Amino acid sequence: MRYSESLIPTLRETPSDAEVTSHQLMLRAGYIRKVAAGIYNYLPLGFKVLKKVENIIREEMEAAGAQEMLMPMVVPSELWEKSGRWDFYGKELLRIKDRHGRDFCLGPTHEEVITELTGTEIRSYRELPINLFQIQTKFRDEVRPRFGLMRGREFVMKDAYSFHATEEDAEREYRKMYDTYKRIFERCGLKFRAVEADSGSIGGSFSHEFVVLAESGEDAVASCDICDYAANIEKAISKSKRNLPDKKEAALPLEKIETPGKKSIEEVAAFMGVKGEHLVKTLVYLADGKPLIALIRGDYELNEIKLKNVTACNELELAGPETVIKITGAPTGFAGPAGLNNIDIYADHTVEVMSNFICGANEKDLHLKNVNLDRDFEVTAFHDLSTVTCGDECPRCEGKLEIHRGIEVGHIFKLGTKYSEAMGATFLDAEGNEKPMVMACYGIGVGRTGAAAIEQNNDEVGIIWPMPLAPYQVIVTIVNTKDDEVRTTAESIYESLKEKGIEAILDDRDERPGVKFKDADLIGIPVRITVGGRGIKEGKLEVKHREEKEAANIEINKVVEEVIKMVRAYF
Ligand code: ATP
Ligand code: MG
After folding, report:
1. What is d(CA 317, CA 323) in angstroms, rounded to the nearest whole number?
2. HEC profile for 381-441?
3. Average pLDDT of the chain?
4. 146-167 residue pLDDT tens
5. What whole-number distance in Å separates Cα of residue 496 and Cα of residue 430?
6. In this structure, is residue 395 part of a structural domain?
7. Do residues 281 and 373 share a domain?
8. pLDDT digits (tens, 9 = 90+) for 506-526
9. Among protein residues, the one whose CA lies closest to atom 23 of ligand 1
10. Which domain CATH number covers 203?
11. I need a surface site. Which of 63, 75, 518, 568 has the fewest CB within 10 A?
12. Is residue 15 part of a domain?
């Protein structure tokens, strides 16, 4: 490609509405442009990166025996009603009507469409297993679209669905996809971890996320410093919080303490001169609109995902001030379990081993001291409801947990028969019995993977593409386009590279060399060949790796050969 003929609108200034590095650089380097919140144009460079990621995914999925197909983006409501998700998916599902007033949605994921298809087309165990995938535009009306391609509303996803006669066979394929995903992200040149994950609204019995490690990530991952235990913080467990030593003491008489204006755990603990571990945090939640109480030791954080799973609700939200007054009789900050009847109380295991603790008195400006389980209140059920923290004990070994931030780029789920049962996707087994197919599904955010690669590979002047994802592998920079010899040398190097299958861009613009170098660094092309008058006179050209500080001087007639070697080293 000739730079002079391409659309690469680079910007000198960092756009003010871009918070994370990848978003800033994709805008500055002319990869994407915003059309509306979470909706983007992929300019030629951005489009090339998207295709690079897609092709790696496609090659690995096909090598693993999956077949590519394409499903529609616009999906009739009937399919979503059949699975039961039309009423439950919530506002992320963009619903539309056609000219006849019939309901449709823009597909945010395609379990419904694929299950309807296989349920109709597959009849016998002989046609199983099958793994079908597509690379397609999804729409999710995210509450907070942000960070560019990282959390868009319209985005490209690879989604795959496999169908099996037995649970064991689904698990075999799940493990195969797990390995395939590892290869995909390795080939993308990313540093990532495969972690145990919560299976969320899609449901199912187990799932893993592939998380690219980056400070700007929206996810947090807990991993053991000794063994290979790693889990999303939404799901991570620790030994210490499940097995706290039982420090139960004899119950002391209940006391009411005035705590004017002291609401938070920190305020009350400081006011009473104790540590947070002597307090119990009492939280009022609405689970599908029904109030409940959650208890946890004062110095720990409640994990809402765990609470949501325990209560098996669709929507869980912290109750507002009005509900808190209605349930506890006091404003937020003074709630406690003692005296609260006719409401479910879920407590974290940490509370099970506490005695004589402090909590709200359900009266404004008052707290209770020496509160005890059984004597003063009862709990509906104890569960692990706490969020692990750095230094907690690994649940599997003697190691300690570390917490890292990361970006979820892929997610695999074993779905079981949730969708096949709901939608009647059955087959006949060898004995002629009709059974629901066992399913698993596998997603990758294509644009998010590209953005995550930038988060991991950049410096103060721009992107540093891993070779496999770079829109062009080599940039040939003409220092002075007015000099005929310089121009023809550059043109011939550029043509030879292209002939050998190297993806090259020729910077033939009538610009100052400084501008060209800046742009080449900003857009992040891995190898730059600089063709200038001085180099030609000396018989050597400067060849520079984007990630290295120093350039090498290579004899003109060896440049093409050397650069081809540099590029091929990555494949
Ligand atoms: P998240 O927790 O980040 O919202 P999710 O659990 O909703 O992700 P899945 O339904 O598993 O995501 O979708 C599969 C993959 O699609 C994700 O692993 C992610 O890479 C990508 N993805 C999901 N939502 C978005 C989005 N809004 N923008 C870009 N990519 C997305
Ligand atoms: Mg989501």
Report:
1. 12
2. EEECCECCCCCCECCCCCCEEEEEEEEEEEEEEEEECHHHHHHCCEEECCCCCEEECEEEE
3. 95
4. 999 999 999 999 999 999 999 9
5. 59
6. no
7. yes
8. 999 999 999 999 999 999 999
9. 445
10. 3.30.930.10
11. 63
12. yes
539: left (phi over 0), alpha (psi -120 to 50) or beta: left
Residue with tokens 């790696």: 56
Backbone angles phi, psi at 185, to 5 degrees: -75, -30
Q: Are both 362 and 333 inside the same structural domain?
A: yes
Q: Which of 53, 199, 235, 448 to mutate to test the pocket of ligand 1 (most atoms within 8 A of CB)?
A: 448
Both 134 and 97 in one domain: the answer is yes
Helix, strand or coil, per DSSP, at residue 496: helix
306-328 residues labelled b (16+ CB within 10 A) or e (exposed): bbbbbbebeebeebeeebbbebb
Q: Number of structural domains, the chain?
A: 3
User: What sign has the CA pseudo-torsion 531, 537, 543, 548?
Assistant: negative
Same domain flag for 226 and 251: no
Give the pocket of ligand 1 (CB within 6 Å): 109, 140, 142, 151-152, 155, 157, 200, 408-411, 443-445, 447-448
pLDDT digits (tens, 9 = 90+) for 345-376: 999 999 998 999 999 999 999 999 999 999 99
Q: Rounded to an integer, what distance in angstroms lies between the CA atom of residue 83 and that of residue 113? A: 10
- Cβ 177 vs Cβ 368: under 8 Å: no
